[in-house]
Specification:
Blueprint: E1 2-5, H1 10-22, E2 27-30, H2 36-41, E3 49-51, E4 57-58, H3 61-71, H4 82-108, H5 119-140, H6 153-168, H7 174-177, H8 179-189, H9 192-195
Parallel strand pairs: 1-2
Antiparallel strand pairs: 1-3, 3-4
Helix pairs in contact: 1-3, 1-6, 4-5, 4-6, 6-8
Bound molecules: glutathione.
Length: 202
C-alpha cells in the first residue's frame, strides 16, 4: 500500500498515526495535492490518498482510516457497536473541523495582505476552533481517553488537531484555557505514533 501526502498536512498525519497504531506497513510517498500523481488518483486533487494493494485509490482521510481499521482487527480504533462508533466518528468530525478552520486561516495568512479575507471571516473560523476546543475539553474532562477506556480514533483526531494548532497557529493559547486538553495532548504526543509523524513545514 502507498500513502500519498506531505508532512505539512494534518489529515495525512491523522492517517499516518492510525497506520502506526495499527502496525500496518506502507510506503509513504511524498506528493503534493497539485501533483499529477494525486490528481490521477483523486478527482478532488487532495491529500491524503491511499493506493490499495490492488492499485485502487481511496480518499478522504476519514474513509482511509476506516479502511485501515478494518484491515487489521487489533487494536480496534473505531468501535464496532453502532452507538459507540457514531460517537467516535463525531469526535473525528470535531477534530477535522478544527483542522479545516486552522488550515483555512493559515492558508489565507500566506496571501498578500490586500487579498486576504476580512475580519468577519477570520472571526468565524476562529470561533470554530474555540468552540470545537471547548466541546472537546467538556467531553474529555478528567478522563484518560476521549471515548471509552482505550485509545480510539477520537484520541487520534483530538491529538492531531491540537498538534496542528500548535504548529501553524501558536498564537491560539489553548493550553491555558483547556487544561484537560493540555494533559491529553502531552500524553498523546509521547506515543510513538505521534512522535514519528510530527508535522513538517509545508
Ligand atoms: N476532508 C479531506 C481534507 C483533505 C485536505 O483538505 N487536504 C489538503 C491538504 S492539508 C489538500 O489537499 N488541499 C488541496 C485542495 O483542497 O485543493 C480529508 O480529510 O482527507
Amino acid at each position: 500500500m502507498q500513502l500519498l501526502g506531505t508532512g505539512g498536512s494534518p489529515y495525512v498525519r491523522k492517517v499516518r498515526v492510525v497506520f502506526a497504531e495499527k502496525g500496518i506497513p506502507y510506503d509513504y510517498v511524498i506528493a503534493r495535492s497539485i501533483s499529477a500523481e494525486v490528481a490521477a488518483a483523486n478527482p478532488l486533487a487532495q491529500i491524503p490518498v491511499l493506493i490499495r494493494d490492488d492499485g485502487r485509490p481511496l480518499y478522504d482521510s476519514a474513509v482511509i482510516v476506516e479502511y485501515l481499521d478494518g484491515l487489521a482487527p487489533a487494536p480496534r480504533l473505531i468501535p464496532e457497536a453502532f452507538a459507540d462508533r457514531i460517537e467516535v466518528r463525531r469526535w473525528e468530525a470535531l477534530g477535522d473541523g478544527i483542522m479545516d478552520a486552522t488550515v483555512a486561516i493559515s492558508h489565507d495568512e500566506r496571501l498578500p495582505v490586500d487579498q486576504r479575507k476580512g475580519p468577519e471571516w477570520y472571526a468565524r473560523q476562529q470561533k470554530k476552533i474555540d468552540n470545537g476546543l471547548a466541546a472537546m475539553q467538556k467531553e474529555l474532562g478528567s478522563r484518560a481517553f476521549c471515548f471509552g477506556t482505550a485509545l480510539t480514533l477520537a484520541d487520534v483526531a483530538c491529538g492531531t488537531a491540537l498538534g496542528y494548532l500548535d504548529q501553524v497557529l501558536p498564537r491560539v493559547a489553548w493550553r491555558d484555557a483547556f487544561p484537560g486538553l493540555q494533559r491529553h495532548a502531552t500524553t498523546l504526543s509521547a506515543r510513538e505514533s505521534f512522535r514519528l509523524t510530527l508535522i513538517t513545514p509545508a
